[in-house]
């Protein structure tokens, strides 16, 4: 095989893996949008908050320690040295469920029947508030997140592919980060679980009913508020998974909230209401931006296509298919 | 009743505001443009803490500068250029000096501060050609500039290759902003001089995703990678380099890509990573002892005091020390403790931080001596290389402080500043 072809395959593979990471963030958006019609701008901050909380539990950090010490002249920082990963993840899940409940009680409950733009604005406020609370609770330092997921280039793949190149050619084997392989496996498990949950459980069916038609669901006795709490809790859980993956890659820090911006083009491509759309959209964006950076990046003086090419793809889609690949068709009756 | 309460409230507010304003007028005002929030907060906080702790120590130990207390209001920029300019406008009245802590903000403030008569001190960042004091009267960027930094990195590579790097490949991974683009011109000029191939790899803000960049590096196999990064970009780059098994001892960051924050998330993978620096790491200096005694032990530490002795905290101490020294020199020159912003600038232009003076200030062996003159606002141009030891989690200085390629750098500075002078119709001074 030619080195060029092998490099192309490597770029596509890495693009697909990056796409999975974007899809993890986009999934949370889709779930909430489907069930409540809210475009949750705070989804990126959810991921950040979940990752901060997880590291906080893992390392035994006292929440709001800085504030407490400032107010009472104390010197609390940690109340235990470490916590097993499993327990810390479980506690973070409980925290995210509690957060969903608080959001429903304090924000959503008061905005029922408001215009989508009002709900959207509320989530912008929520994003700022939650980022501030996260800062106060856990501090702004870069935190190292390690839940035991291996990372680094896959030696196995490198060795298995090094012999594929034509003899005498300069080829070093294919590179894929093990962390991304894990992210892919976890994303597949997550999507299958979500599909099974929504297809085969009573609550899942209720969730789909609410997504299809709020009024009809209410008329058959489905509690809208319980479903909203459930959906926000599930999306909090997905945010935690995304936070773990992204946080393991770059350390947990406040720039993590900006990953939400990467989910926007994914949603435009895949559609705001489709779970498969979020996955396919993520994969397309991932592959598209990696190919663009590597194969046409050199022709642009400003470079850094990897970060803005996704938006160009989204713009093209908006022109020709505004509902995205799998989104509900927009029909306006006059 | 309500009107009475309202009046009391308003009176209290007026008293509070006027006392704040009065304090600003009476003291030496050193406004701080900080970023304690947002994507770059992990770097902004330790740096700002270093500044604040130093100012507090001077106020507590010496009663201020020449008896004048330091007033250091903070304005949060979030590393956003537009907000930084707003912060400047809000705080410029009676301000001695601004430290923008962002090359983007510095570029915007240079013409404004020049018109307003306020000094700008961009310590080892900002517009490199501002080192030419003949053109940039109000701007100082000592002790070393980005162009010095680029040439010092190349000099270090030259030393490792016995002076011959012809045909070698050097990649520059840079923050796609005014800051990250600064070294390009120097590296291109040096590439012509030494015959190496330069590969330019921009990374957009914030730099969370760099997979394609590092795939390119893996394919191109450059001999060395230089990095002009900030914030999460540094952490992701170092982790990515470790992931593709790039030899870390051949990966060299600028001094803003060499803090503990940058290397810790990569764990053992960051072992051997190098960065330039113009100040020493650690907390065993007299200035640290004084800060502990006069600030931390009294419960007055900025933040939670956890950044004490880290690279960026120490950089904040150094930056604050230079700013305070400029005021001390200005007071001596003009024979008054109540200096004006114009007098302060005179002080800045006559700073002479000899080894003896650094020792007096508690900074013995902390940074190399340097001097600022009318012509040279860029200082000594000295920087050293430090290397990260992931086992002990410490930075170790592995070279002496060294000069860059002054022939190349000075020529570029003269070219760029002359162009600026022509555009802005500035007559050269110091003749």
Order of helices and strands of chain A: HHHHHHHHHHHHH
Assembly classification: heterodimer
> How is the CATH topology of the largest domain in chain B named?
Rossmann fold
Largest sheet of chain B: 8 strands, mixed
Share in β-strands of chain A: under 5%
Number of helices of chain B: 15
Number of helices of chain A: 13
| Helix amount of chain A | 55-70%
CATH homologous superfamily classification of the largest domain in chain B? Response regulator
Class from helix and strand fractions of chain A? mainly alpha
Q: Pairing-aware structural class of the strands and helices of chain B? A: alpha/beta
Question: What keyword list fits this structure?
Answer:
heterodimer; A: 334 residues; mainly alpha; 13 helices; 68% helix; B: 431 residues; alpha/beta; Rossmann fold; 2 domains; eight-stranded mixed β-sheet; three-stranded parallel β-sheet; 15 helices; 17 strands; 45% helix; globular
What does this entry look like structurally?
The complex is a heterodimer of chains A (334) and B (431). Helices cover 68% and strands 0% of the residues of chain A. With 334 residues, chain A is mainly alpha-helical. The longest helix of chain A has 34 residues, at 3-36. Chain B is an alpha/beta fold. Chain B folds into 2 domains: 2-144 and 282-379 and 411-424, Response regulator (Rossmann fold, 3-Layer(aba) Sandwich), CATH 3.40.50; 146-277, Response regulator (Rossmann fold, 3-Layer(aba) Sandwich). Chain B is 45% helix and 14% strand. Chains A and B meet through helix 1, helix 3, helix 10, helix 12 and helix 13 of A and helix 2, strand 9, helix 8 and helix 9 of B.
């Amino acid at each position: 095989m030619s080195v060029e072809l092998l490099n192309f395959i490597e770029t596509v593979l890495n693009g697909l893996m990056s796409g999975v990471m974007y899809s993890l963030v986009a999934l949370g958006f889709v779930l909430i949008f489907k069930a409540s019609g809210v475009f949750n701008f705070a989804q990126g901050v959810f991921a950040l908050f979940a990752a901060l909380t997880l590291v906080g539990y893992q390392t035994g950090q006292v929440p709001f320690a800085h504030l407490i010490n400032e107010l009472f002249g104390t010197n609390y920082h940690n109340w235990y040295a470490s916590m097993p990963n499993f327990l810390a993840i479980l506690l973070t899940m409980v925290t995210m469920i509690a957060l969903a409940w608080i959001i429903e009680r304090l924000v959503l409950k008061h905005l029922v029947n408001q215009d989508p733009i009002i709900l959207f604005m509320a989530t912008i406020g929520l994003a700022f508030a939650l980022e501030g609370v996260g800062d106060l609770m856990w501090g702004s330092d870069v935190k190292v997140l390690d839940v035991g997921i291996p990372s680094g280039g896959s030696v196995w793949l490198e060795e298995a592919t090094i012999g594929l190149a034509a003899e005498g050619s300069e080829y070093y084997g294919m590179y894929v980060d093990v962390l991304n392989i894990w992210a892919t496996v976890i994303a597949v498990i997550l999507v299958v679980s979500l599909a099974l949950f929504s297809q085969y459980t009573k609550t899942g069916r209720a969730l789909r009913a609410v997504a299809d038609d709020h009024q009809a669901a209410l008329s058959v006795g489905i509690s809208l508020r319980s479903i909203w709490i459930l959906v926000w809790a599930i999306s909090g859980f997905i945010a935690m998974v995304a936070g773990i993956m992204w946080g393991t890659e770059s350390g947990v820090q406040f720039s993590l909230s900006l990953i939400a911006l990467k989910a926007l083009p994914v949603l435009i491509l895949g559609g705001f209401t489709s779970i498969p759309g979020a996955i396919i959209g993520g994969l397309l964006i991932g592959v598209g931006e990696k190919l663009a950076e590597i194969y046409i990046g050199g022709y642009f003086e400003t470079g850094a296509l990897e970060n803005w090419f996704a938006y160009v793809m989204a713009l093209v889609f908006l022109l020709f298919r505004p509902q995205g690949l799998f989104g509900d068709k927009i029909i306006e009756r006059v | 009743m309500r009107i009475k309460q309202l009046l009391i409230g308003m009176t209290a507010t007026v008293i509070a505001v006027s006392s704040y304003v009065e304090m600003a007028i009476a003291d030496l005002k050193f406004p701080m443009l900080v970023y304690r929030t947002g994507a770059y907060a992990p770097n902004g906080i330790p740096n700002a803490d270093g500044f604040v702790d130093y100012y507090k120590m001077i106020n507590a130990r010496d009663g201020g500068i020449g008896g004048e207390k330091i007033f250091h209001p903070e304005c949060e920029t979030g590393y956003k250029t537009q907000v930084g300019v707003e912060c400047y406008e809000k705080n410029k009245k009676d301000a001695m000096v601004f430290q923008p802590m962002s090359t983007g903000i510095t570029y915007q403030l240079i013409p404004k501060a020049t018109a307003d008569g306020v000094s700008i001190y961009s310590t080892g960042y900002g517009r490199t050609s501002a080192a030419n004091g003949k053109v940039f009267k109000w701007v100082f960027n000592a002790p070393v500039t980005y162009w010095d930094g680029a040439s010092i990195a190349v000099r270090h590579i030259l030393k490792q290759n016995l002076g011959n790097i012809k045909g070698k490949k050097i990649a520059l991974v840079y923050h796609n902003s005014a800051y990250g683009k600064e070294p390009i011109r120097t590296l291109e000029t040096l590439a012509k001089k030494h015959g190496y191939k330069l590969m330019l790899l921009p990374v957009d803000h914030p730099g969370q995703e760099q997979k394609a960049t590092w795939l390119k590096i893996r394919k191109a196999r450059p001999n060395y990678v230089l990095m002009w990064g900030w914030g999460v970009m540094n952490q992701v780059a170092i982790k990515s380099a470790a992931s593709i098994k790039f030899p870390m001892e051949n990966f060299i960051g600028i001094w803003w890509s060499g803090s503990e924050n940058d290397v810790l998330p990569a764990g053992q993978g960051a072992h051997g990573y190098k960065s330039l620096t113009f100040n020493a790491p650690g907390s065993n200096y007299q200035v640290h002892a004084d800060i502990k005694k006069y600030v931390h032990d009294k419960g007055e530490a900025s933040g939670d005091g956890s950044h004490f002795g880290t690279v960026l905290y120490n950089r904040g101490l150094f930056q604050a020390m230079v700013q305070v020294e400029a005021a001390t020199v200005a007071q001596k020159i003009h024979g008054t403790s109540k200096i004006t912003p114009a007098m302060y600038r005179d002080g800045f232009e006559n700073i002479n931080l000899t080894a003896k003076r650094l020792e007096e200030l508690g900074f013995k062996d902390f940074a190399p001596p340097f001097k600022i003159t009318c012509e040279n606002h860029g200082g000594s141009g000295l920087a050293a290389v430090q290397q990260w030891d992931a086992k002990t989690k410490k930075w170790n200085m592995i070279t002496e402080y060294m000069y860059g390629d002054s022939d190349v750098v000075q020529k570029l500075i003269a070219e760029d500043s002359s162009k600026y002078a022509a555009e802005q119709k500035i007559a050269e001074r110091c003749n």
